[in-house]
Design a protein that fits this description.
Blueprint (H helix, E strand, L loop, with lengths): L2 E3 L6 H13 L10 E2 L8 E2 L8 H13 L14 E8 L2 E12 L5 H7 L2 E5 L8 H15 L4 E7 L3 H9 L3 E6 L2 E7 L3
């Protein structure tokens, strides 16, 4: 079982270690270090790996991740409010092993086609231990509590591990679109 935690500064060191693992594996898209350009009324936000060494800057990242669940939080046009959880190893509850997020809506064309409601990533050194599958299992009823009747969850065509994770949580394959498998999971909302 994996623990889902609200992002918190106690994960500072292990979050950065995980970011380094993702980058070493060539998986920068999962490193959790945000860089979003200004767009319309959104002023943009940029974090760097080096800057996040500073506790204050890491606290700013944590505040951004927690605040992203607020419908009125600043975000690029068309982006959805999103609740983020950080996965922790139950044997070491301050050890960051990955993240999972729930987008509150998928009204944006990119989310409705290939992005979906849920995104997750497990650091390379913590894979093959069931963390992603268990995190997704825990998020399904949280989506139901938000009134989301079914979740769109996608993965790359060649990501067999992610496909198994989604299928183990009731994902029904709808088909493929633009290099992604599209699955739907009923939440019983």
């Amino acid at each position: 079982m994996v623990l889902l935690a609200i992002p918190h500064v106690r994960f500072h060191r292990s979050f950065l270690d995980a970011a380094d693992e993702f980058r070493a594996a060539g998986q920068w898209q999962h490193d959790g270090i945000l860089s979003l350009p200004a767009d319309g009324d959104f002023p943009g936000i940029t974090f760097t790996r080096e800057g996040l060494e500073e506790p204050g800057e890491f606290a700013r990242l944590v505040a951004n991740r927690v605040g992203d669940a607020d419908d009125d939080a600043p975000r690029p046009p068309g982006w959805a409010a999103t609740t983020h959880w950080w996965m922790a190893d139950p044997d070491r509850p301050d050890e960051f092993v990955g993240g999972i997020s729930l987008r509150h809506s998928i009204d944006h064309p990119m989310l409705a086609s290939i992005g979906g409601h849920v995104g997750y990533g497990v650091r390379p050194g913590a894979r093959r231990r069931g963390f992603a599958s268990d995190a997704l299992r825990q998020v399904v009823p949280l989506a139901a509590a938000r009134g989301i009747p079914r979740l769109l969850v996608t993965c790359d065509l060649d990501n067999e591990a992610s496909a198994r994770t989604i299928e183990a949580n009731g994902g029904e394959l709808e088909g493929e679109l633009r290099g992604k498998r599209r699955y739907w999971i009923a939440t019983d909302a």
